[in-house]
Automatic annotation (TrEMBL):
Record keyword Nucleotide-binding present: yes
UniProt keyword terms in alphabetical order: ATP-binding, Nucleotide-binding, Transport
Sample GO molecular function, one term: ATP binding
Domain ABC transporter: 5-229
Protein name: ABC-2 type transport system ATP-binding protein
Leader peptide range in chain numbering: none
UniProt family annotation: Belongs to the ABC transporter superfamily.
Top-rank taxon: Bacteria
Source organism of this protein record: Micromonospora avicenniae
Length: 230
């Protein structure tokens, strides 16, 4: 089975510090998976190992069914840092430029604008967009190549409540459209994390809880989810 993400026993040590320990992480096709944990818990190190940027100390990573390598990264869309857009071009023009560079068909541009709910503002200059709209345009850019896996790293960082609510709706739409999404977040069941089909909670490099939001509320208790874990 070609699971989008499968790690087994994934471990990364930096000298005496264990950043990620014995991580078994599975993201299934079509699910929105939230990988949650406080700063320093090991999320970024895990992401780097998933993308083949950092070599694991132990364990294995399979991405889209294969050992991680350059080949399948073209099939992964990622919003990792705010992407660079041209401020004086419109949202639509920016996406057209990116589509051309990425070899994505121009017909994808209106589709992804619609998906991120920016169709009505697509002709406005990027410089005039709110932070939330910029983030959503970043998601649109990540979707241009119709990726088999979409990775969103802290997509609500810096957003106000209305931007966060828009991102929540967007992630729900992506899930409904059958996208496979891996969401990394330092919020523990904040507003956006609640739209995940499953969440895994990582603390000090270890997966300490995994399940649906409802499961975790029941079995782990709100205390664990409400407090910093380290
Ligand atoms: P954040 O949200 O702040 O990025 P995180 O959950 O992504 O946090 P990591 O950045 O993966 O956490 O860091 C996990 C631990 O590994 C931390 O203690 C960090 O200091 C350590 N660490 C990460 N990268 C390195 C490195 N290159 N060398 C040494 N220690 C590192």
């Amino acid at each position: 089975m070609n699971l989008p993400v499968q790690t087994v026993g994934l471990t990364k040590r930096y000298g005496g510090l264990t950043a990620v320990q014995d991580l078994d992480l599975t993201v299934r096709t079509g699910e929105v998976y939230g990988f949650l944990g406080p700063n320093g818990a090991g999320k970024t190190t895990t992401l780097r190992m998933l993308l083949g940027l950092v070599r694991p100390t132990a364990g294995t990573v399979r991405l889209l069914g294969r050992p991680v390598g350059a080949g399948q990264l073209a099939e992964v869309g990622a919003l990792i840092e705010g992407p660079a857009f041209y401020p004086y071009l419109s949202g639509r023009e920016n996406l057209r430029v990116l589509a051309r560079y990425a070899g994505a068909p121009a017909e994808r541009v209106p589709l992804v604008l619609d998906l991120v709910d920016l169709a009505g503002r697509a002709g406005d200059r990027y410089a005039g967009y709110s932070l939330g709209m910029k983030q959503r345009l970043g998601v649109a850019a990540a979707l241009l190549k119709d990726p088999r896996l979409l990775i969103l790293d802290e997509p609500t960082n810096g957003l106000d409540p209305s931007g966060t609510a828009d991102m929540r709706r967007l992630i729900r739409r992506l899930g409904a459209a059958g996208c496979t999404v891996l969401l990394l977040s330092s919020h523990l069941l904040g507003e956006v994390e609640q739209v995940c089909d499953r969440v895994g909670v990582v603390s000090q490099g270890r997966l300490v809880a995994e399940g649906s939001v409802a499961d975790l509320r029941g079995t782990v208790g709100l205390r664990v989810l409400a407090e910093p874990l380290d």
